[in-house]
Amino acid sequence: MFRASTLRLPIAACCLTIALGGPASQAAEVGALTVYNGQDEGPVEAAIAAYEKKTGVKVAMRKAGSPAFANQIAQEGAHSPADIFYAEYTSPLAVLKNKDLLGSVAAPTLAEVPARFNDHDGTWIGVTARSQVLVYHAGTVQEAVLPSSVLDLAKPEWKDRIAFNPKSAAFLEQLTAIAKVEGHAKAKTWLEALKANAKAYPSNTAMIMAVERGEVPVAIVGDNYWFAVAKEKGGTDKMASRIHYIGHGDPGAQITVSGAAMLKAAPHPEEAQRFLAFLVSPEGQQAIAATAADYPLRPGVPSPFAVKPFAELDPSPVTPSEVGTAREGLDLEREVGLN
Under a CB-based contact definition with an 8 Å cutoff, are residues 159 and 194 in contact? Predict the structure, then answer.
């Protein structure tokens, strides 16, 4: 079962030397770490299992949507039992950063991931990434006729031929990136055209299934959802649809990131830092990559899925940290009556 994430919110302290599996980790108490897991498909569970096996540390995990956890952590404040918040998208992390509820990720850990995928102030670290793409019905649309920019989907020839999910956190982050590159007014005009001409769906998976049925020719969605549906169907060769990576530095070709942070009031800050380091270690990245078609953000760790090589994406120049809370995307949707 797949769930599309939504974003409802309007949305530094420790620098430790990390020694995974070293004496401090071995001495940690059983149940010495609590993780709030806002990710969908199993990556965090896989990372926790690998971490527990390596260190002997028992990790308590709570699972819910990332926006729900961001709200909960904000309410709990300094009394939150959570050490780590793992968010499916970075915008909920930015909400908590703005509320001064996140600690700092240790500098050696941040250095394991390219800086553009981490918070520029080091309050959260990127763990895996996806690309916003066009999924198209191969029997209805030829890839060669797809537009070179997502902005071209506002043109009259695409009327009634596009699906989008305005409630998706990924779409809000994509919309925010478009506004940062093209300006608020142009992003609003584009969104108004989508509202008038495109079909809105309640989830990312629902869009892909609609394309699979030939109900709509093209969907704006994250590539990971297409691979998740393909896995359920028994392989990519069973799919009637295909992925088109937009590229060209287009603002619609946004990279969205799953990230993790240590809470400022974490009950076990040293163990929390060790867990963050494990998430971006080769072992942690391999465990995560095996579960879902996300790109590992540690260089040199490949995805076992047939995703386009990360170095060839030529994505939007807007970083997840620059997207922030995706508040501008939410404001745009409210201005045009989509949220």
Answer: no
User: Considering Cα of 335, then 209, then 2, then 290, what sign does the dihedral take?
Assistant: negative
Backbone phi, then psi, for 147, in 5-degree steps?
Answer: -70, 155
User: Of 324, 279, 325, 305, which Cα lies nearest the Cα of 49?
Assistant: 279
Same fold across 23-129+257-307 and 130-254+326-336: yes
Residues 6+ apart with CB under 8 A from 315: 131, 247, 249, 253, 254, 255
Q: Single out the residue of 143, 91, 103 nearest to residue 15, CA to CA.
A: 103
The domain spans of the chain are: 23-129+257-307, 130-254+326-336
The answer for residues whose C-beta is within 8 angstroms of residue 309's C-beta and 6 or more apart is none
pTM surpassing 0.85? yes
**Bridge pairing between strands 33-37 and 59-63:** parallel
For every residue of 57-106, DSSP letters joined together read --EEEEE--HHHHHHHHHHHGGG---SEEEESSSHHHHHHHHTT-B----
Model confidence pLDDT, tens digit, residues 25-72: 333 344 589 999 999 779 999 999 999 999 999 999 999 999 999 999
CATH number of the domain located at residue range(s) 23-129+257-307 in this protein = 3.40.190.10
In this prediction, residue 128 has a pLDDT band, given cuts at 50, 70 and 90, of very high
Topology, domain 130-254+326-336: D-Maltodextrin-Binding Protein; domain 2 (3.40.190)
Q: Whole-angstrom Cα distance, residue 194 to residue 205?
A: 19
